[in-house]
Amino acid sequence: MSKPTLVPNTDISELNPQQVAEYLKQHTEFFVDRPLLLNQLKVPHPQTGNAVSLIERQVTQLQKSNRELQTQLGQLVGVANENHQRLEQLNALQLGLLDSADVSDLLLTLESHLRDKFDCGIVRVVLVANKDIQAEAALPALASTIKSTEEIPAAFNNFLQGSQPLCGRLQPAQLEWLLGDQAEGIQSAAVIPLGKNCEVGLITLASDQLDRFNPAQGTVFLSYLGKFVERVLVRLPRNS
């Protein structure tokens, strides 16, 4: 004798898998009153391919989800630790800049921290010269001066108008103006404005690593650094 069906008068040939799936989505309590049906359903095991009960498959899926969550948690902890370390490094840089005796001292402190603590291969600074800024001869080698922002090449027009850091792969003409002989081999760079439209100057960070400065990483830290350096810079005593 054959086993009776759950709904003997239903013609299941008219149903398709999508309809069944939609029905179960809309009736999530379907198995609450049919617990034995869970044991009768058979699905392939994701690893062995052998048929297992739906409950066993659910357990396997939950274990997989748990492993994925553990991985995500580990990644979040790693990001949190990295951000904490970056914050401590930034705090040390700020204190060093605040303790600077003059412009030259500030620039040397900036270069030292960015190269040693933030893995920036090359640090260059261009200052807009005026009566308050030291003569170029008195500045460290990483710095140079221009008389006004009009000397900044047209290749930087969008950068000047936006007043936001420029980050990623720069044009050859941009690198040549910023770095001179050091432009060769540079794969990525960041240009940070000092003041609105670079009215105080700009900072260049450059690396021979392609992804060291990537727009996808965001520019919040770079913007903050530029604003902080500009505020400290304009308040320092200048040597003639």
Structure description:
The longest helix is centred in the first third of the chain and has 45 residues, at 54-98. Strands 4-3-7-6-5 form a 5-stranded mixed β-sheet, covered by helices on one side. Strands 1-2 form a two-stranded antiparallel ribbon. The protein contains 7 helices and 7 strands. The N and C termini lie far apart (108 Å). It has 2 domains: 16-99, no CATH class; 101-233, GAF domain (Beta-Lactamase). Helix content is 43%, strand content 14%. It is α+β, with helices and mostly antiparallel strands and 240 residues long.
Element pattern in H and E = HHEEHHEEHEHEEH
Oligomer: single chain
Largest sheet: 5 strands, mixed
Question: How helical, in percent, are the residues?
Answer: 40-55%
**CATH class category name of the largest domain:** Alpha Beta
Distance between the termini: 108 Å
Percent of residues in beta strands: 5-15%
* Biggest β-sheet: strands ordered side by side in the sheet: 4-3-7-6-5
Quote the CATH topology of the largest domain.
Beta-Lactamase
What's the overall average pLDDT, rounded? 83
User: What is the fourth-level CATH superfamily of the largest domain?
Assistant: GAF domain
Report the principal-axis shape: elongated
**SS-based structural class?**
alpha+beta
